Amino acid sequence: MEETKTFYLCAECSKDIYLKNYVKVNAKSKASCTICLNEVRTLNISVDTEIVDFCRFLIRYHFPEYDYNTHWGGDDLPQQFYSDNPIISHQFADLDNRDIEVEEFLYELFDINNYDSKIDLYYGHDESGRGLFPEAIKNEKSNTWRAYKTELRNKNFFLLEDEAKKTFSKLLDDLTIKLNSGENYFRARIGYKEKKEEVGISSVTIKVPFSNDELSSPPVLKAKAGRANRQGVAFLYLASDSKTALGEIRPHPGHYVSIGEFTSKKKLTVADLRFIDLMKFYRDDKKLQLFKLLKDLSEELSIPILPEEQENYLVTQFISDVIRQLGFDGILFNSSVSSGHNLVAFNADNFVFKTGSSNLIKIISVEFGYKATEYHIDSFLERAIEK
To answer: Is 1 within the bounds of a domain?
Structure first.
């Protein structure tokens, strides 16, 4: 009788953030990871059906169908996982001597031969003929987000609030955390003030950093529209560290920047959008739409918008105010400029400036990350023709 093989996966070889989190939480015992062969804490994928279902779903999450459907010019599964990919490491140890074992591992991990799975990888046929899933799920905006964006262009925001409160009151139950009193956050502002100092019989003017109210949220009448606030509404935007605070204001070389710390005065209830666990949403289409909505909000809060694109703040401002009306004191979200995170506090009075914490720095240089952007028209059709 042929012995049934057992396969294992470690967190280090799990690249997708949701998969990595699941393995970290659930890996209880040590075994040799099938990918790296290291003896570490691993998950037995041969008995954990949850991870197998989830990994199958991650194919749809990260790839458009034409990447893995040969009818549309893609490569047959599991070829995608022998090269760099967003789900698992492709660095299979001793692959030359384990090629059959690795192939079996991939088929089991991604449940490739399960044609009865409720997680569809292939669109199949409809009245118009053969179809496909043209977009990776991670790149799809939620239907609710698109609806808000359309309606907020044509309706007063308060006409949509009641329905939005019903949606978010349940949705945020698992994303509610408490910030303790005494927690420190950072805030930066371009500029400084001048101070005259007496030196002997003469005086000199020196640059000193802003502090206290000068570093806090602007007066209501001067508050410009931001990611979470409408014009004329003053929220306090804070960062987890000075580097993140500096990056968020995007200074240029030659700028002087004042940076200071603010401390929470009491325990605060905040919506934490830093990690929205896909594992809790992927099995149900309705729940998946809710995940997309939270992911859209988190990403849109994190990503800077150009001045000519200010209209894109309509939805983030609307949802942020709905969250405020539900009794939250603020929102935590990731930064797009560093590994830190940001906090938008709805009431600046919940924080106090930390005396003596302000510093003045001068920006010497700024580094930019970039990538080439290519546009392909019907690229999957071209690939299918080439095949």
So the answer is: no
Record the tokens describing residue 311, joined without a space: 């209209």
Tokens matching residue 353: 């400036």
pTM: 0.86
Strand, helix or coil at 370? coil
The CB-side HSE value for 374 (13 A sphere, CA atoms) comes to: 3
Residues 212 and 95 in one domain: no
Tally of domains within the chain: 2
CB 33 within 8 A of CB 6: no
> Phi, psi (5° rounding) for residue 330?
175, -175
Q: Report CA 131 to chain centroid distance, whole Å.
A: 30
pLDDT in tens, 104-117: 999 999 999 888 88
Burial, 106: exposed, middle or buried (Cβ in 10 Å; 0-12, 13-18, 19+)?
A: buried
> In terms of Cα–Cα distance, which of 302, 214, 325 is closest to 262?
214
Q: Which residues contact 168 (CB under 8 A, 6 or more apart)?
A: 319, 322, 323, 326
Could you tell me the residue range of the domain that residue 13 belongs to? 8-123
Quote the distance between the C-alpha of residue 347 and its chain's center.
Answer: 24
52 belongs to a structural domain = yes
Q: Are residues 22 and 165 in the same domain?
A: no
Domain co-membership, 30 together with 84 = yes
| DSSP label at residue 73 | T
> Does residue 348 share a domain with residue 279?
yes
Q: Which of 121, 187, 139 is nearest to 299 (CA)?
A: 139
Q: pLDDT (tens digit, 9 = 90+) per residue, 284-340?
A: 888 999 999 999 999 888 877 666 666 778 899 999 999 999 999 999 999 988 889
**Cα 262 from chain centre:** 25
pLDDT for 383 beyond 60: no
**12/92 Cα distance (integer angstroms):** 13
Question: Is the residue at 207 inside a domain?
Answer: yes
Residue count (the chain): 387
